[in-house]
What does this fold into?
Amino acid sequence: MLVFILQRVLNAVMVMLAVALLAFLIFQFAGDPVAQLANEQMSQADRDALRERLGLNDGFVTQYLRFVVNAAQGNFGISYRNGQEVLGLIAARFPATMELVLVATALSLLIGIPLGVLTAIHRGRWFSEALQFTSIIGVSLPSFVVGILLILVFSVILGIMPAFGRGEVVQLGWWSTGLLTPSGRLALVLPAISLSLYQITLIMRLVRAEMMEVMRSDFVKFARARGVPRWRIQYIHALKNCLMPVITMTAMNMGALIAFALITETVFQWPGMGMLFIQAVTFIDIPVMAAYLCIISFIFVALNTIVDITYAVIDPRLRHATR
It folds into this structure.
């Protein structure tokens, strides 16, 4: 087991080194940092001194290793646009993104699992087929289209939901949350629905497929033969045995939700990391772009590594198969 964990951790480190190389190349080819930081009154001598202080005269390998060491310590430099530490900027936006992702994940589980069970138990019924057809639409529609439609209906036509912003927030140390204020909770509804719709359809279809497979298993037939109530078989025994892939997919997709929340954040002007990244691209703020790439990749890799190790703990055959 220790060898398996070390292999997975080593794979994660190698992936992060490759991502760090990609982020470092952004620094190399996306523009001259000195030109971004220097003002018009700065002399050539001052520009040369700034280049020396930033270590831009060093070799490629030296600069890359310095970037990796600094990134591992959370030091991504200074934002060209704001003149502030990049990690501080991202830390200020991180709570908004995580709050949106966690609420969207909770919605996808609370809605997707019951709908999946419903369509599996009542397969062939008209409402089950209607839900299946609706799920295809939910998978096909881009999130920005869903967001625009939600704004059009609930903000423009009905006027019952805010169209943009996060509402009033409360500071809990360095963490900011809108869940403790009425305007914050109201502002969270439409972005969370827009972000969770794709996840809801995936979970619904996965639960349906798993439930139909479990309902054909021998232990379900034996439970029916013993006279166990139908609801108990369906909602306790069968459902419990099909939740593991759902939990796994949800954990792995959280990284995707964090990464692709930038579309939802742009549509709803949600002040999260995605919105910060879009602004960085607009103003060619290279340190912020590189830091966002590294942090999102780290979340992806960490979640996948945790899932792999958890699976190996549950099923020893997986760790033996990798030898």
